[in-house]
């Protein structure tokens, strides 16, 4: 079992109560260890008494660290003064479970080592668990070139009880090496990647037997880049439920930090009892980084990667990779040229049996629109798709699958032409036709789907509707927005005022997530739970 450790950085003697309060809250939320960061406190007058008090009143066993500036801390004093401060803490009545010292300092001075040993072996240690030494190494620039040598040095030192290696992850792939280090450890080990690319090393520590993971007491209290909060680890990622056999899923894209997908899929896995965890997998733009990263995730047996959602800017890369790796790309994905779901089928020993990709946005649009259309009206319906990007392509396919005649409108003619070319061989009633946005003026459609980013908070035009004035909307029209942030867009507000039936982007999000969940688990998704997680209330016209 891996422990959650909350680091508490204590700025000054005035902050003791606040620091204890933060530690208590973190422990009540699931932290099992506290790391007292005394970099600043150790330099203050009266610091020793304050540090001793925090160790004595620590709500859980603690690590004491006075981190040197050279390894990301703020202690810039004399080395022997630092050891003297540690000695004052380690020889008190109540002592810490661990003292952390950088292996670089440890290796530099025999005198320092001797003083530290006096602390570690001091008879005044009264807790049932006597103080032990963590030798640590931190690199904020990236993977150290002598990574393996450093780990071997720390693990081979007879005084070292716990090895800690931390570096800035430059890619999700860096975590795989950390996982291998953990799996092959000879001593209890902490191996973590910093930054957004290192987040999975923090979440998946229990899968590989990491001794602990660090998590902040609040979003404003992180002590290293990329550190999640205790609540995020325990509630969103179900840290305590992760074990050796837990299958890993995730969302690949850039950016992915604010994705809603981990909230729904992890809750869903818990609800059906599936031993899986769903994590953010940021992958830098470009085919090469996508291929290298996802290829390695698939090939890394220990990881047991079961598949992923794929979002901007990699949806076009997914079918290409699956094809190159000999997997199955379904006909709809070939037509659309983009996929959002990868499924990796594995045998009992974790070997890859097959890969497939699909586009669950297609079924999400068709299901939402079909459910919202008046039942008595027979197809074909006239449908308008606004936009010519990846979601527009999926919307066209979804609308055609329920018998709509689809008209596509887009701001940039070249992009529209490229999209129409890919449907040029299709004949019959569902034939795709298109035009400029202005070509919609004065026309009426049974269904209108916004597949542009107009209306999206933080997007190109957050306060606007993608439709030009003069498009006919009344009670008989269904208007769907794929934008889900905000949930009620200008388009949907105006459509509701005109009496139209509206479908919001969260409804689409839940439906596409549901199809992914079924792909991976083979079990119906708890849709009500998904809706609750994304904030959809009881009234939901799209379903
Ligand atoms: P995309 O490939 O980048 O396409 C964006 C489209 O928006 C293009 O057609 C672009 O037109 C148009 N556009 C952008 N700014 C515009 C403006 N100011 N005026 C008019 N048109 C504009 O994006 P995508 O992947 O298709 O995603 C589109 C939307 O779908 C996003 O807002 C995203 O939030 C949403 N989405 C929702 C879900 C869900 O589950 N609900 C899932 C995925 C995506 P030009 O060709 O003229 O540039």
Sequence-ordered SSE layout with sheet pairings:
Blueprint: E1 3-9, H1 16-29, E2 33-37, H2 47-57, E3 62-65, H3 79-90, E4 98-102, H4 103-108, H5 110-120, E5 132-139, H6 147-156, E6 160-168, H7 173-183, E7 189-194, H8 199-203, H9 205-208, E8 212-214, H10 230-236, E9 247-253, H11 261-272, E10 276-282, H12 287-299, E11 305-310, H13 317-324, E12 328-329, H14 331-336, E13 341-346, E14 352-358, H15 360-372, E15 382-386, H16 390-401, E16 405-409, H17 413-421, E17 433-435, E18 447-450, E19 478-481, H18 490-497, E20 501-503, H19 505-521, H20 527-534
Parallel strand pairs: 1-2, 1-8, 2-3, 3-4, 4-5, 5-6, 6-7, 9-10, 9-11, 12-14, 15-16, 15-18, 16-17, 18-19, 19-20
Antiparallel strand pairs: 11-13, 13-14
Bound molecules: NADP nicotinamide-adenine-dinucleotide phosphate.
Helix content: 25-40%
Counting helices, strands and paired strands, the structural category is alpha/beta
Low-confidence stretches: 538-543
Q: Which cofactor or ligand species appear? A: NADP nicotinamide-adenine-dinucleotide phosphate
Specify the CATH architecture of the largest domain. Answer: Alpha-Beta Barrel
* Name of the top-level CATH class of the largest domain: Alpha Beta
**H/I helix tally:** 20
Q: Could you give the count of β-strands? A: 20
Distance between the termini: 42 Å
Strand fraction equals: 15-25%
The major beta sheet can be summarized as:
8 strands, parallel
Radius of gyration: 28 Å
Principal-axes geometry comes out as: elongated
Give the CATH topology of the largest domain.
Answer: TIM Barrel
Mean pLDDT: 94
Total domain count: 3
In the sheet with the most strands, the strands line up as 7-6-5-4-3-2-1-8
CATH 4th-level superfamily of the largest domain = Aldolase class I
